[in-house]
Amino acid sequence: MDAQLIEQARAGDRNAFARLVEANYDFIHAVAWRWCGNAADAADAEDISQDVCIKLGAAILGFHGASRFRTWLYTLTLNAARDHRRKVSREVSRMTAFASEPTTAGVSDDDLSAEVWVAVRALPDKQCDAVLLIYGEGLSHSQAADIMGCSESTVSWHVHEARKRLRTVFGRQEV
Fold it and tell me: Measured between alpha carbons, how far is 125 from 166 in angstroms, rounded to an integer?
């Protein structure tokens, strides 16, 4: 069904485009919500989702079926999440998140997990993307490589570098 809607939308059929967005909006929003990592601020996920839908209108012409539509849409959503993160980081310095070294004494597993994900989101873009795709989304290195537009070994390297940085942030405890 997506293939037919995609072709109709590419041809300028607004109804087909609306149905395509409607059919994929929950997917877009779920990815955006996981990517922004701020459960208390669902507005970020909504903003990212809206940006993706707007960008999809122009980007649909560039989709030629070289990859699965969902993979392509995932990449579009990932890029919108990156743009959103850059915008937020311009407003608030990344270093604020690590002003004081986190302590694990008396911290619950949920709180520690939340701290780890905050630290992951503060990593350089490619490292953050690799960790979120593999550990957050449960994708394989191959799937992450398709989305990131690089090789599996590059994804592995980004994960390795992210782990090194996170060990430093958390005082060499295993991450």
Answer: 14
Q: How far apart are CA 169 and CA 162, in angstroms?
A: 10
Q: How far, CA to CA in Å, does 158 sit from each of 34, 127, 129, 139?
A: 19, 5, 9, 15
pLDDT tens per residue, the chain (175 residues)?
A: 578 889 999 999 999 999 999 999 999 998 888 887 655 467 788 889 999 999 998 899 888 888 889 999 999 998 898 888 777 665 544 333 333 434 444 444 455 567 787 888 888 989 998 988 888 888 899 999 999 999 999 999 999 999 888 888 887 555 4
**Among candidate residues 92, 127, 158, the one where a domain is terminated:** 92
Looking at the 3D structure of the chain, how many domains does it have?
2
Answer yes or no: do 109 and 154 share one domain: yes
What predicted TM-score, i.e. pTM, was given to this entire model? 0.62
Q: Which of 137, 18, 117, 12 is nearest to 71 (CA)?
A: 137
Range of the domain at 32: 1-92
On whether both 105 and 131 belong to a single domain, the answer is yes
